[in-house]
Amino acid sequence: MFNYLIRRLYLLCITSIILTIIAFSIQHLTVGNTLDSNVFSQYLDYLISISQGELGVSALDNQPILKTALIAFISTLELCFFAFIFASIIGVPLGILAGLERNRGIDYSIMSIALIGLALPVFWVAIIFTMLPNLTGWVMPIDGNISVIYEVPMVTGIMLIDSLLVSEQYQLSAFYNHLVHIVLPATVLAIFLISEIIRLTRHSITMIMRSNYIKAAHTKGFSRPQIVYRHVLKNAIPPIIHQLRLQISTIISFAMAIEIVFSYQGAGMWLFVSIQQGDYLALSTAILIISGFILILSIIVDLLLVLISPTKRKVLYADQ
Amino acid sequence: MRFLPIYFSLAFISACYQTESTITDTLLYCSDKAPHSFNPQISHDVATLDATTHQLYNRLVKIDPISQRFVSDIALRWEVNSKKTEYTFYLRRDVNFHHNDYFTPSRQLNAEDVIFSFDRMLAKEHPFHLTNVVAETYLYNHPFSNLVADIVKVDDYTIRFMLNKSDATLLANLAAHYAVIHSKEYAQLLLENDNKAQIDYLPIGTGPYQFKQNSTKRLIRFQAHTKPWEKPSNIKQLIFDVTPNSTKRYAKLLSGECDIITNPAPSQVKQISKNELFSLSSQPTGNVALIAFNTKSKSLQNSDVRHALSSAIDRQTILDAVYFENATAANNLLPSNSWAYNPRAPLVYYTPEHSREKLQNGEFDFSQTLRIVAPIKSSIFNPNFYKTAELIQSNLATIGVNTEIIQLRNEELNATLMAGEYDLYLTGISPYIKDPDNLFRPLFSCSSNQIEGNTGQWCDTKVQALLDNTLLETNFVQRVKNYYQLQEYTQDQLIYLPIAHLLRFDVFNNNISGLQMNPLTGIDLHSVNKVPPLTKEQIK
Predict the structure, then answer these.
(1) Which residue of B has its CA nearest to A270?
(2) Per-residue pLDDT, B516
(3) Which residue of B has its CA nearest to A140?
(4) SS3 call for B418
(5) B155-212: pLDDT as tens digits
(6) Which residues of B touch A139 (CB under 8 A)?
(7) What's the average model confidence in pLDDT over A252-277?
(8) Facing residue for A183 by CB, picked from B10, B23, B215
(9) Is pLDDT of A318 > 60?
(10) C-alpha A208: how far from its chain's center?
(11) Contact A263 B248 (CB under 8 A)
């Protein structure tokens, strides 16, 4: 296990260095550097400043850019989290149903819906959703992550918590307001995620239903619900998590596009406004933070999979 | 069944949600642009005027929106001497400056503050004269520098404006957006702290709202003046939400996240006017969109050529295709409701069939290519310069005149204009006060350059004399006569072909009342009253 962890960390280091080189090059090309020293020593200085958490100051508000970027990125993650919860509640049962009823009417219906979800461009769906409240008469906000009438200071960066911290001033209305603001953007993101989760769950369930131990369970005379609950679901989850891990960057990219449509104050909106106003330092900072997060998360997911799935444990041995 | 909890929780969250339009002491104003600064003395863009002139500041006098006469603001009353060269203003004694976390005034407004505010613009050695001002613009001090010889403090609450000569435009200039009054005490504090630039970005004024916060140019918060000298505002929290996208602004109005939106897209106006929940306000702005003919260009020196080209341009199509319903047709540089408007000035009609003939008779060189220069970015004068240029190009092509369209960014544009490297230029003019001099002088005066407005590069002793004499003329009838004469002459010369008089549109929820739109000085939100939203039945 220890060796495996070291191997993963080693990989993390190499990828991180490549990332910093990309980020440094972008910063060098866009922001420029007037210092006379050569590129290599500038890169070393850049590495030192990254290790100290000093990525520079934003030209827009004179605040440390790392802090602003992290707060924005946490908002994006919050949006992804809600979308993921939405999508899991809807997508997993539908995927299981489609997998169990493979090649039947219900499977075709679910998969058609999932395919449509995958085919629709996410920004287009987002624009349609901004018009939805007015078309349906359902009063929902379409702009930002909380109403501008609430002045919520950023303490943790997680608006859900920060809006609770101002409950003395606004009671719970700021908190509710934030929740309502999340509904539409999270639903749009969830549409893509639901399709993905249905597809993955169906595939995983199908694979497991064909395996010998399930056939054995059938011959033993277990009922279908018993087989599904005891054997199939338990073994179907790890491949889904493994596949979703590969989709994290897509999910974050989609979330960022959705943010721009809904003016949701996350990493996408922050990056969009920064670039629009010529603060190119945001570009390299965003690359470092987002890619760094995806790297670390994928390693954590790897470790998690090893812990929960016995079939994955073979990767613990270097020769496998 | 599995989805029921989601539906219930969504319904619960939605039920707890109150749109901003239901909160009656908060007003959300969604504008298309962020103000450049919070001082209308140095920034003259519409967004700055909307956010500052009436909200943060007061002037000595103002124009009553109904009677259109000058009424008192900070000056309780004023007197004029018999020669009309001295104006004495008696100030109110109860005017409080804003009181907030970055400034606590120790005294009320007095003559020192008025003198400070004007000296900043006029006195070159004033410590704040060049603060936050990149270059001295025409409006920064020009309206007063030729007009005012001195401003004298008679006592703490009396000041006297000594004019160089009798001038009819002083009161109009004092009621303009750039004549706002600042706090001298605040300026001195900033000077001591070596933080002069703050004066225009963390403003202190006397208006009904005081500045609270400006977060990254997207959200500007004001709160009601804590010690108002006028009737306190009903709105306690005023928020300017900068939403550049017009579709988004309208969507936010529909979802209750904006109470007022400004500048809806021309294509939305018809749709909005059908919606019973909203009121659409349209005001003539005095801004004119026009085509400037470069009279220094060899091919356009002859006024017959300018007439021939003008009558080949189908302005009605431009109006329909580019402006939709955001503008009215312009036959004259002045709008028809101006007191100086001359209904007898020669008009230009769309007669392309005669244009070619006229050009041939005038020996126009059809082999040359005329350059139509236009800015890349849309502006208040034109929502789509390129489309306008294309329409003109196609009109001129039908009479056999070749043109090329050159679109330029601001910096390149200024250089091109100064070098005179254009034949036709798509532009416009925004007057800042209602006096016609404010419109004609930048366009026709010999002392005005291309950047200041004279893109026709016109300089004529007759026009110059008319402009100068009329400015000094105190007899109103004579002024009208002079401007009639000026219009007849300049329309005959056709240096500028007016395309459209622009309208300003603002849309607001029907639960809002008391809104005053002043197209020249910006929106006035002091008397706004907001009640809970009305249903369609209540409106009916």
Answers:
(1) B216
(2) 87
(3) B255
(4) helix
(5) 999 999 998 887 777 888 898 888 999 999 999 999 999 999 899 999 999 999 999 9
(6) 14, 17, 19, 255-256
(7) 90
(8) B10
(9) no
(10) 27
(11) yes
Mark out chain B residues that contact chain A at CB-CB < 8 A.
2-3, 6, 10, 13-14, 16-20, 23, 26, 28, 213, 215-219, 221, 237, 239, 241, 243, 248, 251-252, 254-257
The per-residue pLDDT for B539 is 65
State whether residue A263 sits within 8 Å of chain B by CB.
yes
Q: Is A128 on the interface with B (CB under 8 A)?
A: no
Is any Cβ of chain B less than 8 angstroms from the Cβ of A180? yes
ipTM of the complex in this document? 0.78
- Scan for tokens 């519409």, then name that residue: B46
Point out the residue among A90, A142, A173 whose CB comes nearest to the CB of B252. A142
B7, B216, B249: best mutation site toward chain A, by most A Cβ within 10 Å?
Answer: B216
B3 contacts on A by Cβ (under 8 Å): 89-90
In angstroms, what separates the C-alpha of B181 from chain A's closest C-alpha? 28
Q: What is the pLDDT of residue B310?
A: 93
Strands (E), B133-254: 148-155, 158-163, 209-215, 219-224, 237-242
- Domains (ranges, CATH) in chain A? 2-12+62-319 (1.10.3720.10)
Residue labelled with tokens 């470092």: A288
Low-confidence ranges of chain B (pLDDT < 70): 1-16, 134-142, 216-217, 536, 538-540
pLDDT at A320: 45
Backbone dihedral angles phi then psi of residue B272, each to the nearest 5 degrees = -65, -40
Please provide the average confidence, as pLDDT, over all residues in chain A. Answer: 85
pLDDT band at A221 (very low <50, low <70, confident <90, very high): confident
Question: How far apart (Å, rounded) are the C-alpha atoms in residues A185 and A203?
Answer: 28
Contact B2 A138 (CB under 8 A): no
> Would the CB atoms of B251 and A89 count as touching at under 8 Å?
no
Q: Is the pLDDT of residue A11 over 90?
A: no
pLDDT of residue B504: 86
What's the pLDDT score for residue A52?
Answer: 81
Q: Please indicate if any CB of chain B lies within 8 Å of the CB of A35.
A: no
3-state secondary structure chain A: CHHHHHHHHHHHHHHHHHHHHHHHHHHHHHCCCCCCCCHHHHHHHHHHHHHCCCCCECCCCCCEHHHHHHHHHHHHHHHHHHHHHHHHHHHHHHHHHHHHCCCCHHHHHHHHHHHHHHHCCHHHHHHHHHHHHHHHCCCCCCCCCCCCCCCCCCCCCCHHHHHHHCHHHHCCHHHHHHHHHHHHHHHHHHHHHHHHHHHHHHHHHHHHHCCHHHHHHHHCCCCHHHHHHHHHHHHHHHHHHHHHHHHHHHHHHHHHHHHHHHCCCCHHHHHHHHHHCCCCHHHHHHHHHHHHHHHHHHHHHHHHHHHHCHHHHHHHCCCC
pLDDT tens for each residue of A195-217: 989 999 999 999 888 889 888 98
Taking CA atoms, what residue in A is nearest to B16? A176
**CA–CA min distance B260, chain A (Å):** 14
Band (pLDDT 50/70/90 cuts) for residue A35 is low
